[in-house]
Queue: 4 jobs
Job 1
Amino acid sequence: MLPEPVVERRSFRAPTTEAEILVASVVSGILGVDAVGLDDDFFELGGNSLNAMRVIAGLTEALGVNVPVRIVFDAPIMTDLASRIAIGIRAGFDVASDDAISVVLPLRTGGSERPLFCIHPMVGLAWPYMNLLPAVDRSIPVYGIQTPALTDEKFAPAELGDYMDRYVDEIIRVQAEGPYRLMGWSLGGVLAHGVATRLQNRGSEVETLVVVDSLPIAELTEAADSRPFVDHLREDFSAMGIAIPAGEEIGNLSRESLTSILKAVEGDRVGLSIDRIRQLFTSIEALEAMIDRYGPKVFDGDVIFVSSEQHPEPADAALLWQPYVHGVIDNFYVQCPHVAMMTPPASAEIGQVIDRALRTQY
């Protein structure tokens, strides 16, 4: 069992400037917090990926201009966020409309250390990894890797390995040389492992590989949980606050359902559209067959594995990875279901494990 996360309590500093008051008001309204101070951290206040999108939507509506999504990730402390807003009001915001759905999602760009790359779960979005940020040292930049299906019409993968090859190229564009740091949850763990082996095949060093509650191949996943593929998807999207209607095919959702999903995630504020959401679900549906055909290679190095204690046999998941790891698998457990691992308080516990690993203190 991991230790309870420690949240430092700060003395309250009230907002005074126009930008500070605006930020505090919007965040307070979204999170339902009575008093938001300048030194409060958005994520420590209970903010998550969906709430971050709603804060951006609220700021955009209040200011009458598009506010970039990354601003909440890069500046989660209220005084820093207000400063960014004030600068944007004076000089204009640098907005990339597809930032929240781009293949590389900058969750934290500041920091002098080598970055951590967090590869998306089945849903294709890296938004849930925002909840790791409070626990990972601020000197470490963090990037999410997301499905190209949302932004690249020419991307036509035939196998799961095509995703991995694309992600290797994207990661190298951000960090030209190793050592590399990778993590992934659920399907993201399989993808991160595959990316790691491909980087090694190119002669690069992978110094950290964190796999969170993931099984190596589809047959083992089915043996561990016999529910239909679509049920897993509904559960994963539900954890993000997105309801997938029962009785509808994932790859053929009604326009009414797609509109409801778009509204739930403030999609029009972050470059999403009904057509793009439809494309996302079509690509996810195609993943099922790719997963069935995929066979992992062997990663040469140690792996940090985090699994749920709520599995019938929690230790078995790590053991299933052993044939695909030429090194030590260091196993940690969290007391929460699989679907909740990237939400507080589990995300704080997992973030602590990752932080210690990146600073070689675990």
Job 2
Amino acid sequence: MDARSADRWERIDRRLQDAASALEQRDLIVESRLESLEEFASSQYTTAVVADNWGDHFESRISDLEHRMFDLECIRIVECGDERDERVADLEKVVEELKAGQPEIYAHLDDFVERNLVGVDWPSFCRMIRELFCRNQHELLLRTYLHIRQTTTVQDYVDRFVDLIEQLSTYTPNPDHIAYVTRFVNGLRDDIRAVVFVQRPKDLDSACILALLQEEATEPRWRREGRQLHPPPFVKSQVQRGALPLPPPPARAGPPPQGIAGLPVEPRRPQDDHKPPTRPLEERFQSLRDYRKSRGLCVRCGERWQPGHRCAPQVQLHALQELWDVCQDEFEVPGCSATTDVTEPTDAVPA
């Protein structure tokens, strides 16, 4: 019984000691937290005091800067006023000098008028003004008129030509419209000039409209990919009339040529023409259709497409040219070059 009570008292003592140590540790933690809070509060108080002091200092500095800015603004206003007064004084001096020189200028002007302009009518006076200020302008305009050509588009050429005609009209009160039309047609591009020349326009407006329409009609043909400005390949070459030449005589059979050490030499074979591979015909037709769609053209006749469009009963020449460019590889004859010109059949009978 005594041993059991002693063991119990020992356990109670240990538990009391553990509780006392836990209380001591807790008191230490609380003390450390209180010390950190006191330090933080003191630092915040110090910061607030410093901020109050700096705030007063900033207010004084801001007020000082405001006074200085006001002084600078006053100085600037005074300086601008002084500069304005100086410029006004200079202008007044110039006006006084001009007024002082006016009698002399008027005297010279009256003398010039009495010597040169007495009895001169208005057209003569205008001619004298042109000779004085536009001495070589008329010659330059005439030189430009004689050498003007179409270099880019018809619209650009029309604008330049009309501007030139308007400047020349000041020197020619009764212009020759036929000469203007002829010069305009001669300055057009070769393919456009031929069509406009055949139409024989009567005035410059008609010639301009015909040139613009012809450019629009030939634009799909002349702007095709890879197309150069040259005549179409349907130009017939000159054919020599007369009897056809006889074929060459057959070669004589002889012994085979001997090579080194008496061995026969194998005759040379003509090299095969290495032609680049061509795309299938259907693919080329599809490319042509895509090109016409992208240009806003009819996929059948090649003309401008619009709602209600109907193809013409006769096929246009440029549409045939495009089809020939696509299909000419299919119609090539073996052994003939692709650039062989189409010739007319001769009427002569071989002898």
Job 3
Amino acid sequence: MLRILLVITALLLCTRPVLAAPLKVSVAEFKVTGATGNEELKGTLQSMLASRLSSDRINIVGANEEPEVTVIGTYIAFGKVFSLDGKVVGANGKSIGRAFEQGDNAEEIIPAIGRFAQKLAKEIDKMSLAPSAASRQSELVPAVLPSTAAAGSSVIIRNETPVVAKGSDIIRQENRSGNVKNGMIQRMDGIMNGIVQLRRVEGGGRELVVALAGELLLYRQQNDVQLIGTEKNFSGNEKILSIDVADLAGDGTPELYVTVFKGDRLASRVYRVENGTFRLIASDLPYFFRAIAVKGAPRIYAQQMSIDEDFYGDMYEVAKKGAAFEIRNPIKLPKFGNVYNINMIADKEGKPFLVLLRPDGLLAVSNEKGENFWMGSDKFGGSEMYFSREDLQNARVTGSQQRKRFIEQRMIVTKKGELLVPKNEGLFVVGDSRSYSKNSIYAFTWNGITLEENWHTRVSQSYLSDYQYDEEHNELILLEVVSKAGVFDKGASAISIKKVE
């Protein structure tokens, strides 16, 4: 008897139950009733729910894999009130459980999706707790611990399959090894919409200008970010749409170009920022501004607004003549093009092309004649920044006397010819309200025929409101909204620096 007990004890010490493999779960496209933008909302809700369900117990699978469990969701809106209803179904078609969540307005959709996912996960867990024949057969199989990525790893370098590399924050394509290292990150109160690097300073730091809706902030960034100046001289009906920087005077002191929307018109400004102060040198300019680097040297381009059109006519280069500013050298824009969603690239021979971020999020490249040369299939961009204009003509259709015009994220072309394009995801749209929940930045090279992806940053779980690239020091400067504003909360943003290697 003692011998038998010793054998059993030895077996128990050498074995342990295998942890159950995560369940394969598919999230079906939502059925949407009573909401504006039904088609877009179907996929958006599907994506948001899938990202929140994914865990060590739940493996979200695509259409090409056979799921063990399927989640079927419905979104119903009655005015501002909405309801989320879900059913969990097994592979045999049998219902496992149900869950629901509701809210009183569009701002509650994202937190409601989170609560909805938690409830559904509990129902899905009922399936994982049910013992299968396979699990019964493997109860005494010796445990094998899965291999883990290196500590602190945040980069995948691609060959045939993704490979995680230590200390990186960039996913690179085959034969393009490298990484991005996380640097400084600092949280600040308020929703910040724009950022530019004004200049480098002694000691390896830099001066940054950050824009809120009605305020400009000057920061010095080294080991942390310190506020050294402000400009608050904006009225209640003025809204800062974008900020850009360039040294058009050529005197070594860059000018700050601030696009301001006032009431129903443009009233933009230009500042010189010196010794911690903002000095206004031009105001009430009827232009949208955007900095575009041509052969590495940033220039300011402008576009106007008309009574009927939000973006009117050609895009012009801005020139500084003494104390005055003028526009010259018009550039014909392709269909859907405006000063915010366009940039210039060149092939290996230096032949110029225009790259356009279309309203549907697709990248398109056209030649000098405006002919469409290439168009991609993946969506990029995505912005919550907008201005509103009176639109009585369509009020009966839209239900609002105002229309929102969203302006696109900036694209950056480096001196090496690399095109940087941001991508905000996790979108939901209810009426004219937009909200994004995650972002990444992609880098492409134009080979004369197509845009080839070089690398992209790992997805960050925040909305990217703006960014810059310090090419001299290979650093991405990211401005993210980490907490949305609410009725009793003014929200929060964060500036982070990532070293590209």
Job 4
Amino acid sequence: MAVAAMMIVVAEHDALAATTSGAFVHVSQAEQSVPFIGEFSNYNELMDVVMDEMRQFRSEVTFKYTGSLNNFNASFDGALQEALMKPGNDYIHGTLSTWRYTYSSAGDVTLTLTYVGTIEQEQFVTKRVKEIASELTIDPNMTDFDKVKAVNDYIVTNVAYSRDTTTTPHHMYALLTEQKAVCQAYALLAYRLFEEMGIESRYVVGYAGGELHAWNTVQLNGVSYQLDTTWNDLFYNGRDLGDNIQYNYFLVTNEQLRRDHTWDEARYPVATDTRYAMYHDIAMGIEHDDDVYYSSTHDRFLYKMNKQTGVKERLTTVRAAHIAAHGDTIYFANESNNGFLSAYNVNTKQLTTVDAVPVTNVRVRGDELQYDANGTMKTTKLAQPALRQTFQTVVERSEAERVVAQINALHGAKVEDVIAVREAYDALSYEERLNVMNVKKLLVVERKMRRAIVAANRIEAIDPQSAKFTQQVAMARLALDRVPATQRKLMTSVRVLEQFEARM
């Protein structure tokens, strides 16, 4: 009996082009043999099973097709692509790279699949997604909006857009291990984090800027919105701006996105709601306490917006960029004055020039103000709020008032001081906690310092007299090594650990 010609690489696309949509199932161990998945007489039943195999990242399956083999190539490809585009299959769509198959005139088919990442990488991704989602949702009172914004802000401030990666830039593994990747990885990470948080979303593939592009739709209270984390990430001369975020593509409508994106709109939820339009004026901004300080897309002046009420206030009539904040002072590049480093005090309303040189990439790290001045990174020490003095000045107040004051004094605080504030809050009665209206600020600080807090607690728990002393020191060192260098500078217990290590 004659054998039909082999069908070679039906979809040898760019990884993004070959991706589609889907809910994630935990990765299984690599298969030991090629499984036979059954006999099928129609494509719908076949694709349901094929999708299940793909969720396990199966690399090869065999099956028997008992239906008509006329135009099998086109029919199979069409059915597979249609299945990939269905809601619930987004993650398969986003991670499938290529497929090929051979078949005989008897209907015996071998389907070979390749993915953007390996099984080991997928296992790593699953673990990190759970960890990140846990870190981002440390506050039990967070709304779904808070969670969506936390995901957007996490991605934008922790990764940079780049194709220059050691592993494929299309996969989240590069994004999570090298902190850089392309739009496909951005959108897939958002999708997985939303899934972990119980928020409905889609992984969308289309075009933007004349190139293949990926982003998300997300649903809040039954209402759909468009979200492009890649295009919310800011760059300057090819460099990622780190702390600064724009929200031009945050919870926007189809009409807004349609200005520079194209996609098969009929396949995805329609976004028409404009209730978050207040964020779309933020061209470059940062969160600080209960407000967002930003450069407006309309006039580039410096504004302040309250995160809870959305009330806006114009602070300056000079154009601002590269914004950073510390205490009561907002630092920025004054584009109305040659890009010189300027400072605006929100209490005195005074605008001053800090350094009469053009600057970019302004940021605050601990008690340091850092900025790029004509290609040279400069650093200036900033005055720190006297946290412990603040504790002493409020001893006459009620316990709740004291904790409120301590939380308000957490700007640039040592990690151990953050722990002390948490202990003070936990010691309050239920009724007293109700009066600590700024507890969310403590949660935000704890979230940012989560690894440092874990390390500090492990160092504090070391008992030199314990039989497990060596193990305790090793575990504390392991925890400390995971703390970002900028936060290690804010830990007084580092020296304690070094002294313990010297005794071993």
